[in-house]
Amino acid sequence: MSEATVRNTTSADAKTSLGTVGAASNKPTSGRKIEQLSTGQATWRRLRHDKASMIAMGFIVFLVLLAVFAPVLAMVTGHDPAQQYRETGLTATGLPTGPGHEFWFGADQLGRDELVRIAYGARVSLLVGVVASMCGSLIAVVIGVLAGYFGGWVDNVLSRITDFVMTIPFLLCALALVSVFGASIRMCLFVVIFFSWAVTGRVIRAQVQVLKKKEFVEAARSLGASDASIIVKDILPNLTETIIVYTTQGIPSCIVFEASLSFLGMGIVPPTPSWGGMLSEAAGNSIYMVAPWLVFFPGLFLLMTTLSFNILGDGLRDALDPKAGRRMLAKRRKRKGLAAVAGAAPVVAQVSAAKDDLAVAAQSALASGSVAGARPVAAAHSVSAAHSVAAVRSVPMGKEGH
Amino acid sequence: MIKQVLRRLLFAAIILFLLSIFVFGLFYIAPGNPARLIAGEKASQEVLDQVTRNLGLDKPLWQQYITFITNAFQGDFGISYRNQTPVTDLIVSRLPVTFSLVGGAVVIWLLIGVPLGVVSATHPGTWKDRLAQILSQLFISFPSFVLGMFLLYMLYYLPKRNGFTLFPPGGYTKLGDGFIGWAWHMALPWLTLALLMAALYQRLTRAEMIDVLGEDYIRTARAKGISENRVIYKHGLRSTLTVLTTQLGADIGSLLSGSIIIEQVFGLQGVGALAVKSVNTQDRPVIIGVVLLGGFFIVMMNLLVDILHVALEPTLRR
After folding, report:
1. Which B residues, 112 through 131, put their C-beta within 8 Å of a C-beta on chain A?
2. Where is this region: Disordered (chain A) (predicted)?
3. Nearest Cβ partner of B246 from A178, A346, A387?
4. CB A64 within 8 A of CB A119
5. For the whole model, what pTM was predicted?
6. Which of A239, A346, A376, B264 is deepest in the core (most CB within 10 A)?
7. For residue range A233-253, what is the model confidence (pLDDT) as tens digits?
8. What tens digit of pLDDT does each residue of B281-302 get?
9. Does residue A68 have a pLDDT over 50?
10. Per-residue pLDDT tens over the stretch B198-210
11. Where are the domains of chain B?
12. A35: left (phi over 0), alpha (psi -120 to 50) or beta
C-alpha cells in the first residue's frame, strides 16, 4: 500500500528526476554538455541494456518483416498460401512431405506450403494482437478515467460493469457469442477486445483516483481549468507508463486468445491461414504424429511471439519505473548486505512493480467500498478482488481457459 | 463478518442474474430459428408451429425468461435440442472428468510452483532463482494447446513408435475402476495444465515471499534464534497464503467451468468438450447451461475464498 502511494506521489516529478538520473551518468567531468534526457530517451537507455528485451524486440521486428513481406516469400518459394500442391507436397501414400528444399518448413496435409502459411498467419496474429490490445487499452482508459475521476454513481455503474466482465467465464461466453454470430475475423476481434479491457480499466481507475487528489490537479482547478482540460492535460500524461506497459503485455494475451479460438474452430475461418487454425488442422486426425513439423513450426512461432512480447513487456515495465528497483534495493540492503543486492537488483524490480499493482488495486477496491466497514489496513490484505487484479494481471489472458 | 459474507453473496447472485440475462438475450437476438433446427429442414409449417409452441418460443421474451429462471432454480435447464436429454443430466455426466482433471492438476501445480517460488525468493539473484524465473517465463508464455500437443508427441507417440507405451493418448477411465488406471490416463493432461499453472504460482509465491521476508517481524523471528526453515515456512509462507488462495480460487473456478482446450487436445469428454460440441451443433439450452454453470463455479469459488480469508486473517475477525 505504502509503496503505491510513494510511487504515485513521486510520479509527477518523476518525469524530471528521470532526466537528471540519465544525465548524471554522462560523466560531468568530461566537459561534455549536460543535456536533460526526456523520459522516452531515459527509458530507451535502460531498455537497451536489458539483453533479453533486446532479443525479444529483435524477434518481434523479424516477425513484422515476415508478415509484411509474406507475398515476397510466396514469390521466392513459388508457393501460394492457399494453393494445394498435391504432386510435390504429398507423398505417394498421401502423407505430407517433410521440410526440404522444396518446402522449407514442410507441407501440410493438403500439400500447402507451411512456411508461407506461417508468414501469412503472422499477419493475422499481429493484427489481432496489436489492434485488440490497443482497442482494449482505449476502452480501459475511457472507463478507468471516467470512473476514477468522476466517482459517485458513474464510478459505481462502470465498476460493476468491470466486475461483471472480470467474473464471467470468458472463453465460454466467447464461444456462445461466436456460435450465435458465426466465426469471422471481425467477430474474433470483437470478442478478444470485449474480454481484454477489464483488468487494465481497474488499474487505471485506481491510479486516477490517486492522481486527482494531487496538488497539481488542484492547482489546475484553482486556475479555472475545466474537467476535460484536467483529464487531458494533467491526468492522461501521468498514465502513459501504465498504458504502454499494459498494452504491450496485453498483446500476447490477445494473440493466444485468438489462436485458442481458431484452434477450437471459432476464430479465423479456415481458408485464411492462422497459427491457431494450422495447429487445429494438425491436431485433427492426429496427423501431427506422423508429420511433427505441422505442430513444431506454428507452435514455435506462436510460443516465440508470446514469449517475446511478455519479455519486452516486463522489460518496459522495469525500464519505465526504475525507482521500484531502487526502493526494493534499499529494503534488501538493510537485511542482507550489499553483496546480495548486486545480484538481486534486476529481478527485484519486477517484484516491486507487481507489488505496486497489487497495492493500487487494493486502493481501488477500498475506494469503491467493496468491503463495508473494514479498516484500510485490513482491507488491503483482505479484499480478494484487489488481490486477484494483481494476480490475474500477470496471467496471460488466454491461459484461463485451458 | 456475516454482513460481509452476505454482501458477497448478494453480489454473486447479481452477477449470475446478469449472466443469465446476457446469455438468454444473446440467443434471443440470434439469427436462425431453433424450432427449424429441431424439426428439421423439411418439416411442414404445422410441425414447426407445434415445436415452437412446445418450446414456448411463441411467448414474449420476458415470459420465456421467467419460465427459464424458475426452472433453473429447481435445477432444470431445459432439454437438449440435439439428443432430447435434460441439460442438467448431460452436464452432471461430464463433471467427473473435469473435476478429475482440475483436482489432480491443482495438487501437482502447487507442489511444483510454490516450492520453486520459495527457493527463488530465498535465493534471489542466484542461478537457482534465474533458472526458475526463466522456466516460469517460458511456461507462462506457452499456449496450452501447443504444450499439450508437444507433450503428447514426446511422451506418447515417440515411446510408442519405439515399441512401448509410456502414457495413453487420452481418454478417461472412472476413478471407481481403479486409481492407477485413472491416474495413468490423466497424467498427461495433468502435466500440461500443471506446468502452465505452476509457472504462474512460482511468480506469485516469489513476489510475495520476497516482500514478506523484508518485513520487520521476520527479522524479529530470526533474532529470536528460530531455525531458518521455520522462519521461511512458518512465518514467511504463512502470510503469502492470502494471495495464493485468492489466485487458487479464481483459477479453480474458471478451470471447473471447462478446461476447454486441454479437454479438446486430450479427447477428454468433460464440460469444456460439451461446450464446444454444443456450440458446433447450435444446441442452445446446453450452451446456456454450461455458461451459467461456469459463472456459478467462479462466483462460488470467489465466495469461498472470501470466507477462507476471514479464517486466515485475524484482523478480519471482528
Report:
1. 124-126, 129-130
2. 1-36
3. A387
4. no
5. 0.79
6. B264
7. 888 888 888 888 888 888 998
8. 878 888 888 888 888 888 888 8
9. yes
10. 998 998 888 888 8
11. 88-282
12. beta
